[in-house]
Write a structure and sequence with these properties.
About 45% of the residues lie in helices and about 20% in strands. By secondary structure, it is α+β, with helices and mostly antiparallel strands. The radius of gyration is 23 Å and the shape is elongated. The strands form 2 sheets. A 6-stranded antiparallel β-sheet has the order 5-4-3-8-7-6. A hairpin with a 6-residue loop joins strand 1 and strand 2. It has 2 domains: about 80 residues, Orthogonal Bundle (Arc Repressor Mutant, subunit A), CATH 1.10.10.10; about 170 residues, Beta-Lactamase (2-Layer Sandwich). It contains 11 helices and 8 strands.
């Protein structure tokens, strides 16, 4: 009750209207439609819209018959994004992944042709595949690495590996660019990546990309462990990792369902 009494009704209504418009980006709303949704008189809704338009949070179509989200929202989101650190956003989720899977969970970002670990959580299993903050791994044969470059074009891949050949680490390592491009396409389509003994024998990893609000891949989340245990729990591990990716991507401003592979 105390919280309700502290609300400013006009501000609450304006933000409610803004949220409604934001939830339906596929089309604009007429004044009549917004009035019906708000269950208010038309003049009051018009004044709210005019105020939101003044601050560029709502814009009116050229025909002046419908209203959409304004570009000022992008400026606010951009300011918030630059204030955030990906580790701050992902760390609580990362802890949850390590707890649920009991495997080491890690966060990685791209540095040139390598993936560098920027955060990690220790799993509770006695035997684990160790990763430490600051360690690096190859992009082309690891789960987090493939996740970080799954949206690269052929030209970008060629440039990335022009001076960094695809070295064979195990019999499963992909060492040819056409095969790598096929693998990256699969990762992009399904929304997650696997490394089944591609980088280290007897080690299996599951990972996936993390996007910012513009749709750019900025990091990757993954887990790793011994092959026998990871393969036996693959369905569970995939579910946990993909749920975590969905949660982090939502926190980063990625639209729900925008990332591929939402079905397990």
């Amino acid at each position: 009750m105390k919280e309700e009494n502290s609300l400013i009704q006009s501000v609450d209504r304006a933000l409610g209207l803004l949220e409604y418009i934001a939830e339906h980006p596929e089309g604009g709303f007429s004044l009549a439609e917004l009035t019906e949704h708000m269950n208010m008189d038309k003049s009051s809704v018009f004044r709210i819209l005019a105020t939101l338009m003044k601050h560029r949070l709502v814009r009116q179509e050229e025909n002046r018959k419908s209203y959409r989200l304004g570009y000022g929202v992008f400026s606010l989101a951009s300011s918030l994004y630059h204030q955030m650190k990906i580790t701050q956003v992902a760390s609580p989720v990362l802890r949850g992944v390590a707890r649920k899977t009991r495997e080491n969970a890690h966060l990685a970002a791209r540095s040139g042709p390598l993936a560098v670990f920027i955060d990690r959580e220790q799993g509770s299993n006695i035997i684990t595949a160790n990763t430490n903050i600051g360690d690096t791994e190859e992009l082309f044969c690891t789960a987090v690495g493939k996740s970080l470059i799954c949206d690269f074009s052929l030209q970008e891949i060629e440039l990335l590996f022009a001076k960094h050949p695809l070295e064979r680490y195990t019999p499963q390592t992909i060492t040819e660019l056409p095969l790598l491009l096929q693998e990256l396409s699969r990762v992009r389509s399904q929304g997650y990546a696997l490394d089944i003994e591609e980088y280290n024998l007897n080690v299996v990893c599951v990972g996936g990309p993390i996007y910012d609000f513009t749709g750019k891949i900025v990091a990757a989340l993954g887990i790793s462990g011994p092959k026998d245990r990871m393969m036996a729990e693959m369905e569970r591990n995939l579910r946990i990792v993909r749920e975590a990716l969905g949660e982090i991507n939502a926190l980063m401003g990625r639209a729900p369902g925008a990332e591929a592979g939402t079905e397990v």
